[in-house]
Design goal:
single chain; about 140 residues; alpha/beta; two-stranded parallel sheet; 2 helices; 8 strands; about 10% helix
């Protein structure tokens, strides 16, 4: 296939979405394999697959998401471990995207609040394991 194309765009994201995975919130586009997940649900696996099957690296274009996926939490759901499973479907639609379970980057930035602020918006939650970084 590669010899006949100028480039191949890899859409290596949306491995998990609130519409397909209503009761499992996880990273929609992990860079590398996560513990206890399928080995092919990450960007690294997709790129390696194409390269190992003879596609020249210069022909691969990697598409990455610049948005976030959201889910509604059930009651007092725990958000300190992954994947989060105490969920109730897609989160509310954003004012710009108007799609349940999807927020654009500007919509996310407007909701993230400092950890010391009053309740209301999203809060930056540090990763105690120091393996995944902060998330909202």
């Amino acid at each position: 296939l590669a010899p006949y194309l100028d480039f191949i765009v890899l859409h290596a994201f949306d491995f998990y979405t609130p519409l397909r995975n209503e009761e499992l919130a996880d990273f929609p586009a992990p860079l590398y394999e996560l513990i206890d997940r399928r080995g092919d649900e990450n960007i690294d696996a997709w790129v390696k697959y194409w390269l190992s099957n003879g596609t020249p690296a210069k022909k691969l274009l990697l598409g990455i998401p610049t948005y976030g996926r959201t889910w509604h939490l059930k009651g007092e759901a725990k958000v300190d471990q992954f994947p989060i499973t105490d969920l109730n479907g897609p989160g509310d639609a954003g004012p710009l995207t108007k799609e349940a379970g999807l927020l654009s980057y500007p919509e996310i930035c407007n909701k993230v609040t400092p950890r010391t602020s009053t309740p209301g918006g999203l809060t930056k939650i540090p990763d105690g394991t120091k393996r995944r970084g902060k998330f909202c």
